């Protein structure tokens, strides 16, 4: 009986010891001192102010820098068209020939009238000379001499009038040759040989457009323009060097036009329908790649930010509200969450206007395994392009 009791007591002591042993926690286990797990390794980029050219991409359309509508200045029948449609023409080159017959006749008649007036003047001069001698000898009266003098002056005035009529006839005869008012490319002809044209008619015979250089009319919202002016006034942006902002073009297929242009002027009024302002840029067009009416994207240089904060795009994400956020390594190598304000993308980086400053250590790798307040071990990024 007693041996059974001693056996049970011994078994109870062993069980107690076993249970006590199971409750001990080894050093370094999960429930041990904080910091037992090594901190997460993250790649960081230390931000520093950089010089950044601020550009804006805006829609635009090309327009000829000079347009001249060819119209007749005299009436008549078109005898000949003297150009090839779509070809390049020079200033003063003849484009059409209007039947000159009636104008040639008018010119010849005016020329004969001048000759007749000059002959009448010669007669008046001879008469005046004879009467001057007779008046000196008191053979004729002073009135007769004065009448001869008046006839001469009338003959001289008649010559002036006849010369003016001759010049008008010559001009009209010259106008039968319809000349190009500018150098450029001429479009299709609105008339053919045998067509009757009239002086001052509403319809143009053809249109000549100068394509080199060429204009690009760009539309920019009034809000963008006001923001740009405020940034320039505050000194945040500096004007681009040169006489005008440099501008580049991108075609609809994404290819870039090889020539750069200059922003020439900005409209002084806002279109109330679109709340936009029209800007005009001038581009060289030596190969005639740009044609009037083409849709293009203009990349306009607004200015230069000498102290821009540029954050690599791989280090910027968005929260559930769609706001751009970034994680930085703060004091004690603890992760801090920053809500950012970004202006635009410049290459593979965001231009940050608020939320980051020079000297911040932006986390660009290892974002999936960290959170605000977590301890991390910052290292240089493996991808040097992330810097």
Order of helices and strands: HEEEEEHHEEEEHEEEEEEEEEEE
What gap, in angstroms, lies between the N and C termini? 84 Å
Share in β-strands: 35-45%
Mass-distribution shape:
elongated
> What is the gyration radius calculated from CA atoms?
46 Å
Instruction: Give the integer mean of the pLDDT values.
Output: 83
Query: How many helix segments?
Result: 4
Uncertain runs are: 1-35
Classify the helix fraction into a percent range.
25-40%
Largest sheet: 6 strands, mixed
Structural class: alpha+beta
Q: Could you tell me the number of beta strands?
A: 20
Structure description:
With 387 residues, the protein is of the alpha+beta class. Helix content is 27%, strand content 35%. It contains 4 helices and 20 strands. It has helices at residues 2-22, 101-136, 142-175, 222-234; strands at 40-46, 50-70, 76-81, 88-89, 94-98, 177-179, 184-186, 196-197, 206-221, 246-250, 261-266, 276-283, 295-312, 317-318, 324-329, 335-339, 341-346, 349-354, 361-365, 376-379. Strands 1, 14, 15, 16, 19 and 20 form a 6-stranded mixed β-sheet that branches. Helix 2 (101-136) packs antiparallel against helix 3 (142-175).
């Amino acid at each position: 009986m007693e041996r059974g009791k001693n056996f049970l007591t011994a078994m109870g002591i062993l069980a107690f010891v076993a249970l006590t042993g199971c409750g001990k926690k080894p050093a370094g286990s999960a429930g041990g001192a904080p910091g037992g797990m090594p901190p997460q390794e993250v790649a960081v980029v230390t931000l520093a102010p950089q010089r950044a050219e601020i550009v804006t991409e805006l829609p635009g359309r090309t327009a000829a820098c000079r347009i001249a509508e060819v119209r007749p200045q005299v009436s008549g029948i078109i005898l000949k068209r003297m150009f090839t449609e779509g070809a390049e023409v020079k200033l003063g080159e003849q484009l059409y020939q209007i039947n000159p017959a009636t104008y040639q006749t008018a010119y010849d008649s005016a020329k004969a009238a001048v000759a007749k007036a000059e002959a009448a003047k010669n007669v008046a001069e001879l008469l005046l000379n004879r009467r001057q001698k007779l008046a000196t000898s008191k053979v004729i009266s002073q009135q007769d001499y004065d009448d001869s003098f008046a006839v001469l002056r009338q003959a001289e005035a008649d010559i002036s009038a006849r010369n003016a009529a001759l010049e008008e006839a010559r001009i009209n005869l010259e106008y039968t040759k319809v000349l190009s008012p500018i150098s450029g490319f001429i479009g299709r002809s609105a008339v053919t040989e045998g067509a009757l044209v009239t002086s001052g008619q509403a319809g143009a015979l053809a249109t000549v457009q100068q394509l080199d250089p060429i204009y690009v009319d760009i539309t920019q919202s009034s809000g963008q323009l006001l923001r740009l002016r405020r940034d320039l006034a505050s000194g945040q942006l500096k004007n681009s060097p040169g006489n005008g902002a440099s501008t580049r073009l991108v075609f609809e297929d994404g290819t870039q036009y090889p020539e750069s242009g200059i922003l020439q002027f900005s409209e002084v009024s806002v279109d109330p329908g679109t709340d936009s302002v029209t800007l005009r840029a001038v581009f060289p067009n030596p190969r005639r790649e740009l044609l009037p009416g083409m849709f293009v994207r203009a990349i306009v240089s607004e200015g230069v930010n000498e102290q821009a904060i540029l954050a690599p795009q791989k280090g910027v994400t968005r929260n559930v509200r769609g706001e751009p956020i970034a994680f930085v390594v703060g004091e004690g190598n603890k992760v801090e969450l920053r809500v950012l304000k970004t202006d635009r993308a410049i290459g593979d980086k965001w231009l940050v206007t608020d939320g980051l400053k020079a000297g911040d250590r932006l986390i660009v790798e290892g974002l999936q395994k960290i959170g605000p307040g977590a301890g991390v071990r910052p290292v240089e990024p493996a991808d040097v392009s992330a810097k």
